[in-house]
Amino acid sequence: MAESDADLHGLMLMDEPGFEHVMQCVFGIQDHECRTYVELLDVPGSTVSELAEDLDRDRSNVNRSLATLMEKRLVERERRLLDSGGYVYQYTAVPLPEAKERMHEALEEWSERVHGRIDGFGTGSNEAF
């Protein structure tokens, strides 16, 4: 069983899964990525350095988490010019209602695929049970 399948199975067995469990399962993200998203909800406009300190994580690990979250369209990045010259990136989580809507959309897409697979069982196109 693939890791995401195991996550889904575990989620289905929970009576009342929490936000972070659902988010991890639906988006296929890790715990540390989910914690990064939640931190950005609390402290929007954070830099990598600020997040690394707040989350007690290495900057490189925070960068990887942010890259994944941006790929999943859960975090946005904005470049801020510094008075001393140069720039720094600030990160902000997409608003919770938007993230929840994306969770609903992802689950609906998955459900449609599974329904299609179920409908195809025994029809010749999906002979393997």
Automatic annotation (TrEMBL):
Stretches assigned to the Transcription regulator TrmB N-terminal domain: 23-95
Gene3D superfamilies in UniProt: Winged helix-like DNA-binding domain superfamily/Winged helix DNA-binding domain
PANTHER family for this protein: HTH-TYPE TRANSCRIPTIONAL REGULATOR TRMBL2
Protein name (database record): Sugar-specific transcriptional regulator TrmB
